[in-house]
Each structure stands twice: as structure tokens, then as C-alpha cells.
Design a protein that fits this description.
- With 101 residues, the protein is α+β, with helices and mostly antiparallel strands.
- Helices cover 29% and strands 21% of the residues.
- It has three helices and three strands.
- A three-stranded antiparallel beta sheet has the order 1-2-3, with no helix packed on it.
- The protein is rod-shaped and about 70 Å long.
């Protein structure tokens, strides 16, 4: 076995700073506001709806004043694509092959 395995130089070891000291230092160094605090979002309402064609949940953020959709996940194009793919993969109820005697 190698004797060097599991040994460590004392110069390679560093002392970890406690979490409280690190947080205090960070607060002292960066007093600038965060981007989220600089630009507050307009009054909005969050809605969760079910798309019956795809069975997907739709997360929407609606602007309260205008009623317009601000954000939506998944977007309209992805929902249409899912509905199209589900329509292709759906099993057909009647067979297209006819047996002739």
C-alpha cells in the first residue's frame, strides 16, 4: 500500500469560516439592491389550469388590470405539439384492414 494515501499537508488544510461570519461579510460588501427589488412586478394573479386535450397542467400569470396572460408554462406551441403527438399515437377504434373471403 502507498503510505501517502490518506495523508494531507498542514499547508493544504484551510479553516472553514462559520456561516454567520460569511453572511455578515457578504452583507457588508454588497449593499446594492437586488434586481428583483429594483423592479417590482405589476399586480398579477397566478392560475393553474388543466388542458383536457393533453392532460397537462398549465401555469399562467395573469395581469390583474388588463386580464392579459403575462407568462405561461408550457407555452401554446408546446401544448399544440403535445395534442398533435397524442392524436397520432392514439389507438384507433376501428381497424382499417378488411378481411375478404
Amino acid at each position: 500500500m502507498d503510505a501517502a494515501i490518506g495523508t494531507l499537508n498542514s499547508s493544504a488544510v484551510t479553516r472553514a469560516a462559520p456561516v454567520m461570519e460569511t453572511a455578515q461579510r457578504g452583507a457588508q460588501q454588497s449593499p446594492s439592491p437586488t434586481p428583483a427589488a429594483a423592479s417590482p412586478e405589476p399586480a398579477s394573479e397566478r392560475r393553474i389550469e388543466l388542458d383536457y386535450e393533453t392532460g397537462s397542467l398549465i401555469y399562467r400569470m395573469i395581469d390583474v388590470t388588463s386580464g392579459a396572460t403575462v407568462r405561461q408554462t408550457p407555452d401554446e406551441a408546446r401544448l399544440k405539439l403535445r395534442a398533435y403527438i397524442d392524436g397520432i399515437d392514439a389507438p384507433r377504434s376501428d381497424p382499417h384492414v378488411q378481411r375478404l373471403a
